[in-house]
Amino acid sequence: MTPEQLQAACEAALAKWIPRLHLRDWRITLVMEKPSPPFEGATVLSVWNTREAIIHVDPDYLAVHKKNADAEAPGQPDADKIESMIVHELLHICEQPLLGEMQRNIKWAFGTSKEDGGAVSGDALDCWMRYRESLVNHLTRILIEADRSNGWSA
Asked: Domain containing 89: what range?
């Protein structure tokens, strides 16, 4: 798949899923460039109060994630992998308001480290980030499966 075909597939998935996830009032921009470390493949940066988001997709997304994607969904067509990636990133926009509240709860539950200026300890934050990714992955699979089985329309 060429970078142009990847971009077209991403744009088609955005057009399909933005209305379904009730993100029509958001200004979502697709940027075909490698995300900044530590992110790989695709990531989203969103600002809730202005309802703006930028989804960065590595032009080599399919090559970068072929091993992981094949392990999670063997034999899945490239177009389906791309659609799942876009739904995943859009779900991160949906869950973004929870971030501040969750960070406050983590600080309350796990405390903070005086060494790094009161920041949440790395272990607690890593655990929370793994949970978020797991939840978003799970919801992505549910939505994609519902779409495939029901012909869900916006």
From this structure: 3-150
